[in-house]
Amino acid sequence: MTNITADNMIYDSLALKVTFAGNVRVSHPDFTLKSDALQLFLTESASRGLSGGQDGLSSGALRKIIAESRVNITLPDGKSANCAKATYTVNEEIMLMEGNPVLREGNNQIRGDRMIFYLRENRNEVHGRVTMDFTSGEAQGQSGAGTGRSGAPNAR
Which of 50, 70, 87, 124 is least enclosed, having the fewest CB within 10 Å? Predict the structure, then answer.
């Protein structure tokens, strides 16, 4: 189940869109997201359900989520990321982060121009000029498990 809270909400049935503004927080099984603004893009069936008073946001009702401005994402495995814009495509379970994205895991971090998270496959890619800062597993007092042998966050 996904839960969204915000200061304001506007539902546009013609555009099949719900816009949230101010202190937006999304709790999803695969991630927690905070931002200043968020747009939900609905399927046609979701729009009929919402305007008809039914449960329009059931499974399969969302096509895409776009978060903008001071986006912060936390994943269940402890990684966190910040960026200017994040786009989550629901059916593919793919998160695209743009606008100076930074991925952190412990003391380690990766920066790039764009990051793509394939949530189903538990993998990510960093594109553009990539900068990685990491501490080896021995220096952290751990083996680097879950971060690759170097202790750096997983990135391909």
Answer: 70
Q: What is the pLDDT of residues 61-86, one digit of tens each?
A: 889 999 999 999 998 888 899 999 99
Q: What is the distance between the alpha carbons of residues 132 and 104, in angstroms, rounded to a whole number?
A: 10
Spell out the domains of the chain, with CATH numbers in brackets: 3-129 (2.60.450.10)
Distance CA(10)–CA(19), nearest Å, equals 5
The amino acid present at 83, given as its one-letter code, is C
CA atoms of 107 and 20, how far apart (whole Å): 33
Is residue 59 within 8 Å of 49, Cβ to Cβ?
Answer: no
Contacts of 1 (CB under 8 A, 6+ apart): 29
The closest of 45, 17, 21, 33 to 119, measured between CA atoms, is 33
